[in-house]
Every structure is written in structure tokens, then in C-alpha cells.
């Protein structure tokens, strides 16, 4: 298999005719989400920067480029590793690997995330499993009707004549019968249990990374009373044939898809059976914002219920109120993360100026990554008419390192520089 290393938001005209590119060019993420691609974060509505109309590859006027995603995409013959453009010439993708480690709370020393080799498609599947499991169980434990067979005196369904003759003649007081029960122990939870058992053998640290994941694993183990390692093939096949319907249980549908790929180690994807394209798509702008949240602890704003909201008007009721969402606030200063090199001098400036005004702040800051050490630090963009200043803080992503541990030491120095900075 040939492997190509690409960068997000970059021209790739030389690969414009490659079969993977031509199959996925201008295919929106809403389409790929329905075709077995793994998209992270799970729900496109969780991302302000990536929506269902976004693409992996865009072709226009004879030009081809990658868009605002990173990840691994392949077809069984070739594989594209789309890395961050702020981590130059890095096939091992340490910057992406490190952000995933921070956002998903994998703060451990000796594990595969810390090794030097390139992260594989299967590695990414496994690393995402705890996140998907936690999201699904936050909806409650999945329950569905299952067929059960009994042989006792408490008849609760139609008699199974064949089993009755085989097991209960001469008659000993028991009756063989079948029944349908609404149960927590079903094809979906059994699939999850098999996935847990496999990951415990290979990457057990992932299932010990937080109290939430440990509790959710305990719940799955507790409810899957009929678990048997010998049933794995049948359980996987039953799940392939009976996908969870979308809607309220969308998180379980996505977890089911992930578990099937982990257990089969097959790259189920988009297209005809003979030439399917598979992929793990990560919204790198979302990941950048979540990473900054993890390392700073700043007050976080957003549309999700657990995040803060800033009102635009002072006296309007809730039903007529307008909301604004700076990414972060530090001591009254609005901070907007931007995963791009150049700030849009119209939309981005207008956005930050609004935050400065409604928060009555003395300044506002764009927080951007950079691969140029000469540009790092806080830079004044200008003073606003009406009061206030606008800054850009360039967070330097290390470029020269020998190992992943070396990269971690360097980037943690950048994190410390950011955390001790007083924007006031």
C-alpha cells in the first residue's frame, strides 16, 4: 500500500486525478456521514467551523485542494494521511496526535500514542472508542426487544415444540417456550462488550483514562450477562445486518459503526464494494478549540447546553434575545481561536469587535497556531475607534524534534507561556 502525506487547506493539484480524490471531491460531509465514514466530533452541529456542506477535497476551475479536515483516508491500495499544515513534514503527525491525547484525556506516559511510528487507521479507531462510548451512554443504556428461550414452569410465550420433545419427555414439569423481552442485554450492548474486551487486551490504558469511561465499562460488563467470546462473529454479523436507526439513538449508531470496524479491522467505506473508500475525518478547527480549552481552563462559550452564552441585548426577554459566542474569556477579555494563518479582515474583525463591545472589554485576542517561531507571541493589530485594542496571539507549534516525548516537552513550554500570559 502506498501512503501519501498531505496537509489540510492546501493545494494538491498533482493528485487531482487520483481515484480517491475523484470519488470524494465535492462530496459533502452529510453524504459521507451516511456512508460509514467516521466523523469526529460525531455530530456536525457540535462544530462551528465544519458543517454538512463541507468537503474533504474540493475541485473547482481545474484546481484541487484539501479543506478544513485532517485524518486518514484510503481505498485499500493507497492511503492519504492529511496532517495539520502547522506541523510541517511530519508523517507521524505529532501535533494532531498530541491534541487528540489532550482532548480525550489520554494523559499517560507509556502507550502507543507516545511511540514514534505513524498512527494507523486502526489506532485512530481505538483511540476514539472511549469518547464515542461516553457520548452514547450519556443518552442512557441502549434497550431493545430480544428473542429469549426458556425451559421452566413460568410460561410467558409460545411453546417451542421441538425443544419440548427433546428436553422435557418424559414430562418433568418444565415447558420449553420462546418470548420477546425488552432487554439491556442485546446485539448492541454485546457488540460494545466484545469491543471492550478486545481493547482491554491491546490498549487497556484507554479504558482507565477517566472515571466516566471506567464507570461506563463497568455498566456494559454488568448488563451483558450472555457475553461469550465465542459469539463474536455472530454478534458482529447481526450488527452489520441490523444497523441502529438514526434519530434519538444517533450516538449508538455511530458507536455501532466504530465497534464493527474495530472488531473486524476492516475499513468499511463509501462506494462500490470492489473499490470502497474509507476514512476517519477530524474537524481540526474544532480540535484546536477543544485543545485550548483543556490546557487553559478559560471560561468557554458555545451553543451546547454546558457552555456559557453572552447576551447581545440588555433588557430583552429570553424569547427575543440574541446570543453571541466568543470562544473563551479570560479576566473579561474575549479570546477567539482561529485555526488559520490569516485573519479575515472583515468577518473575523467584525466578530471580535462585537465581543469587545458587548463585554465592555479593553481588548480582544485572536489565538492562532503558527509554524514560524519568529511570529510567536502577542502582536497588536490595532486600536478601535470607540475604544479597545485588537491583538493576535500566535501559538508556536514545535517543528524540530527527534521523538514524540521531545515534541511534548517543547509544546508544553508553549502552553506554559500561554497560561501565564496576562492579557490585561
In short:
With 424 residues, this protein is α/β, with parallel strands linked by helices. The protein has twelve helices and 17 strands.
Overview of the molecule:
By secondary structure, the chain is α/β, with parallel strands linked by helices. The protein folds into three domains: 2-141 and 186-286, no CATH class; 145-183, no CATH class; 297-419, no CATH class. 33% of the residues lie in helices and 21% in strands. It contains twelve helices and 17 strands. It has helices at 19-24, 29-33, 94-103, 121-137, 161-167, 187-202, 211-223, 232-241, 250-264, 284-296, 347-358, 404-419; strands at residues 2-7, 38-40, 57-60, 63-66, 69-74, 78-83, 144-152, 175-183, 278-283, 299-300, 310-311, 323-324, 328-330, 333-337, 363-370, 377-383, 389-396. The strands form five sheets. The protein has a six-stranded mixed sheet with strand order 10-13-14-15-17-16, sandwiched between helices. Strands 1-6-5-9-2 form a five-stranded mixed sheet. A hairpin with a 5-residue loop joins strand 16 and strand 17 (389-396).
Largest sheet: 6 strands, mixed
Count every helix, treating DSSP H or I runs of 4 or more residues as helices: 12
What's the end-to-end separation, in Å? Answer: 53 Å
User: How do the strands line up in the largest sheet?
Assistant: 10-13-14-15-17-16
Strand content: 15-25%
Protein name: Guanosine 5'-monophosphate oxidoreductase
Amino acid at each position: 500500500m502506498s501512503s501519501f502525506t498531505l496537509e489540510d487547506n492546501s493545494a494538491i493539484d498533482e493528485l487531482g486525478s487520483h481515484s480517491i480524490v475523484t470519488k470524494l471531491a465535492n462530496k459533502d460531509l452529510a453524504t459521507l456521514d451516511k456512508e460509514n465514514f467516521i466523523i469526529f466530533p460525531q455530530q456536525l452541529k457540535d462544530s462551528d467551523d465544519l458543517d454538512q456542506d463541507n468537503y474533504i477535497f474540493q475541485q473547482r476551475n481545474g484546481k484541487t485542494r484539501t479543506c478544513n479536515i485532517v485524518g486518514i483516508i484510503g481505498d485499500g491500495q493507497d492511503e492519504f494521511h492529511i496532517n495539520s499544515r502547522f506541523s510541517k513534514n511530519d508523517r507521524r503527525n505529532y501535533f494532531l496526535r498530541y491534541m487528540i491525547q489532550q482532548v480525550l484525556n489520554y494523559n499517560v506516559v507509556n502507550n502507543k500514542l507516545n511511540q514514534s511510528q505513524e498512527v494507523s487507521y486502526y489506532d485512530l479507531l481505538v483511540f476514539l472508542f472511549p469518547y464515542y462510548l461516553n457520548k452514547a451512554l450519556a443518552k442512557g443504556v441502549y434497550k431493545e426487544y430480544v428473542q429469549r428461550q426458556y425451559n421452566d414452569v413460568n410460561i410467558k410465550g409460545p411453546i417451542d415444540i421441538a425443544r419440548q420433545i427433546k428436553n422435557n419427555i418424559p414430562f418433568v414439569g418444565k415447558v420449553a417456550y420462546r418470548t420477546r423481552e425488552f432487554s439491556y442485554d442485546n446485539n448492541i450492548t454485546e457488540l460494545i462488550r466484545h469491543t471492550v474486551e478486545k481493547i482491554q487486551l491491546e490498549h487497556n490504558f484507554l479504558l482507565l483514562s477517566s472515571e466516566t469511561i471506567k464507570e461506563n465499562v463497568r455498566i456494559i460488563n454488568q448488563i451483558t450477562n450472555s457475553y461469550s467470546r465465542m459469539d463474536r462473529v455472530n454478534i458482529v454479523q447481526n450488527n452489520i445486518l441490523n444497523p441502529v436507526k438514526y434519530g434519538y439513538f444517533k450516538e449508538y449508531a455511530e458507536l455501532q459503526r466504530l465497534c464493527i470496524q474495530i472488531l473486524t479491522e476492516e475499513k468499511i467505506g463509501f462506494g462500490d464494494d470492489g473499490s470502497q473508500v474509507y476514512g476517519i475525518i477530524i474537524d481540526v478547527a474544532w480540535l484546536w478549540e477543544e485543545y485550548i480549552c483543556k490546557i487553559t481552563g478559560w471560561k468557554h462559550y458555545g451553543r451546547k447546553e454546558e457552555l456559557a452564552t453572552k447576551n447581545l441585548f440588555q433588557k430583552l426577554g429570553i424569547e427575543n434575545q440574541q446570543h453571541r459566542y466568543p470562544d473563551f474569556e479570560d479576566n473579561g477579555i474575549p479570546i477567539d481561536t482561529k485555526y488559520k494563518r490569516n485573519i479575515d479582515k472583515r468577518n473575523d474583525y467584525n466578530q471580535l469587535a462585537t465581543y469587545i463591545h458587548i463585554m465592555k472589554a479593553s481588548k480582544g485576542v485572536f489565538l492562532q497556531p503558527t509554524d514560524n517561531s519568529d511570529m510567536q507571541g502577542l502582536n497588536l493589530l490595532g486600536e478601535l475607534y470607540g475604544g479597545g485594542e485588537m491583538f493576535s496571539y500566535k501559538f508556536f507549534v514545535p517543528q524540530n524534534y527527534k521523538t514524540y516525548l521531545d515534541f511534548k516537552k517543547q509544546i508544553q513550554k508553549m502552553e506554559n507561556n500561554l497560561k501565564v500570559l496576562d492579557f490585561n
